[in-house]
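The data layer described in this paper is built around a simple, fixed record for each protein. Such a record has a labelled line for the sequence and another for the backbone structure tokens. For reference, a complete record is included directly beneath this paragraph.
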Amino acid sequence: MNKILILIAGAPATGKTSLSEYLTRELKIVCLNKDHIKEVLVDMLGYKNRDENKRLSETTFFVIKYVAERAMIIGESIIIESNFRVNEEEYLLNLISKYNYIPITVFLSADPRTLHKRYLDREHSGSRHHAHLSADLTDFKDFKEVIEPQINFDIGGKRIILDTNELNNINYQSILKEIKEYIEKMENENEF
């Protein structure tokens, strides 16, 4: 398997990290996880206010872009997990085109009220890294405003939509199977 870009996308609290960690283990592909990278940056650099935290979020995506392109230069497959912003689509599309990669997007979604409850539970659990605690999204309207642009994230290629309203009912094996079948199909069609 080579030249595959798997994007794990969706709003906060949809289960992206759990899925990306499963896929990276099963497919033996490096995963760039936005939250994990941001946590390292915050641990090293810190931040004093919301604006500095937002700047670290932007910096995190620049790190992801840099590392992803280095992998693509040598033809390595890669997984990127993030709550992608609309302005990040163009850059990813350029990479896909420049290095002739096959994109697969797994888009995780759930009812906004379910996500908001999960988000609040996670924020108040005490286990969330402080890098993710500067945004005040306790109001549902503010939360919904943040997640709505992410719903339309689409860079073409294979798109798998995964309903995560019931996290315990997610069948990771079936997603893995669908991804492997698509990769095999593309290899058989010599689309690489």
Notes: The CA atoms of residues 50 and 134 lie 6 Å apart. The chain has seven helices and five strands. The mean pLDDT is 90. Residues 50-73 form the longest helix (24 residues).
